[in-house]
Design a protein that fits this description.
Shape: elongated
Number of strands: 0
Radius of gyration: 18 Å
Structural class: mainly alpha
Distance between the termini: 51 Å
Oligomer: single chain
Number of helices: 2
Strand content: under 5%
Helix content: 25-40%
């Protein structure tokens, strides 16, 4: 073992040979520390990630 971990550089993503591909985008939001803490605490209380909480709220309001 060479001490390196993960897949070899240049190897295809698992599942792409079957025509499946998952693409995720990243966004960031800004707020005061207490606002960000409140959002994180709300997500944790509902056993959700912050992302899932935000997307569900957007979906419910149909924005």
């Amino acid at each position: 073992m060479t001490g390196k971990r993960g897949r070899p550089k240049g190897s295809p993503n698992k599942g792409t040979e079957l025509g499946r591909k998952t693409i995720f985008k990243t966004m960031s939001i800004s707020g005061r520390p207490e606002e960000m803490d409140a959002l994180k605490n709300l997500a944790k209380a509902r056993n959700k990630s912050v992302s899932k909480l935000v997307f569900e709220a957007l979906h419910e309001n149909r924005l």
